[in-house]
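STRUCTURE:
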C-alpha cells in the first residue's frame, strides 16, 4: 500500500511539473508571437518557381529563450552537467529521444501526388495539388525574398525542441544562413529532427517538439501534412480548422491540439 501511495504521489509531482512548464510555454508564446494579419482564401494561392535551396542540419543552432530556468540551468541542459538535485528532477520528464526525422523535396512531391487527401485538406491545398507545373519544379517553395504570389511571406512559425529537463529551446537559423524566402525558412525548420548523432557530443537530442505555425500558405499546409501525418490524423485536424462549428471568428481561425496523458498504477 505504501508503494502505491508513493507512486501516486510521484505521478502528481510529474503532473504538476508538466503544468508548470506548459504555463511558461504559453506565456512565452503569447509574448513573442508576431501580430497576425487576416487569413486569405486558399484558392487565391499559386506556386512560385526557382532552384532548390538546401541547408545542412549542423548549421542549425538552438537558442535558450528563458524557459531553461523552469527546472535547470541552460548550462546543465546543454552539457548534461548539473547537481544531483537537477539530475533527480529530470526523471520527471521523458528521457527517450524522438526518432530521427528527415524529409526532402522529392518525398514531399511524391506525397502530394499520391496521398489520398480528404476534401478539407484538398481545400487548403488548392493551387498546389491542381498545379502540375509547380509539382514538377525542383523546389516546391518560393525561393525569392519579399512578397510572393502564394502569400507565404505572411506566414509565421516558432519551433521549440524540448530537452530531457523539460525546457523548450527555440530552433532558428542565424541571419547569415537563412534562405531567401520565408517559406524555405519554415520548411527547413520543420523537416528535420534529431538528425545529428549526439552520442559523442554534450548536446542532447530532443525528446519533444512544439510547433507553432500561423497563417500557413497552401504549400506550407502541405508541408505540415507531409511531416506530421505519420503521427496525427492531419486530415481530421484540417477538417476542424475549416468547420464553421465551434468558432464565431469568421475572419480568422486558430487550431490548438492538446494531448493529455494519464497514468494508472495498480498492484
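SEQUENCE:
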Amino acid at each position: 500500500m505504501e508503494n502505491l501511495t508513493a507512486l501516486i504521489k510521484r505521478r502528481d509531482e510529474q503532473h504538476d511539473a508538466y503544468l508548470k512548464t506548459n504555463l511558461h510555454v504559453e506565456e512565452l508564446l503569447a509574448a513573442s508571437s508576431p501580430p497576425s494579419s487576416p487569413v486569405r482564401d486558399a484558392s487565391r494561392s499559386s506556386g512560385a518557381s526557382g532552384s532548390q535551396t538546401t541547408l545542412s542540419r549542423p548549421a542549425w543552432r538552438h537558442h535558450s529563450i528563458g524557459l531553461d530556468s523552469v527546472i535547470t540551468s541552460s548550462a546543465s541542459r546543454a552539457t548534461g552537467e548539473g547537481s544531483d538535485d537537477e539530475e533527480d528532477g529530470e526523471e520527471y520528464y521523458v528521457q527517450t529521444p524522438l526518432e530521427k526525422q528527415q524529409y526532402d523535396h522529392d518525398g514531399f512531391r511524391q506525397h502530394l501526388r499520391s496521398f489520398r487527401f480528404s476534401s478539407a485538406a484538398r481545400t487548403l491545398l488548392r493551387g498546389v495539388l491542381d498545379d502540375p507545373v509547380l509539382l514538377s519544379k525542383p523546389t516546391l517553395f518560393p525561393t525569392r525574398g519579399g512578397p510572393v504570389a502564394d502569400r507565404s511571406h505572411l506566414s509565421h512559425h516558432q519551433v521549440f525542441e524540448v530537452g530531457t529537463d523539460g525546457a523548450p529551446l527555440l530552433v532558428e537559423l542565424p541571419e547569415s544562413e537563412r534562405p531567401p524566402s520565408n517559406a524555405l525558412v519554415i520548411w527547413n525548420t520543420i523537416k528535420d529532427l534529431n538528425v545529428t548523432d549526439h552520442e559523442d557530443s554534450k548536446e542532447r537530442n530532443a525528446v519533444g517538439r512544439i510547433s507553432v505555425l500561423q497563417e500557413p500558405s497552401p504549400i506550407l499546409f502541405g508541408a505540415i501534412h507531409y511531416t506530421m501525418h505519420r503521427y496525427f490524423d492531419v486530415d481530421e485536424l484540417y477538417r476542424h480548422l475549416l468547420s464553421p462549428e465551434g468558432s464565431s471568428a469568421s475572419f480568422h481561425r486558430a487550431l490548438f491540439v492538446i494531448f493529455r496523458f494519464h497514468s494508472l498504477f495498480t498492484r
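REMARK: DSSP finds nine helices and six strands in the chain.
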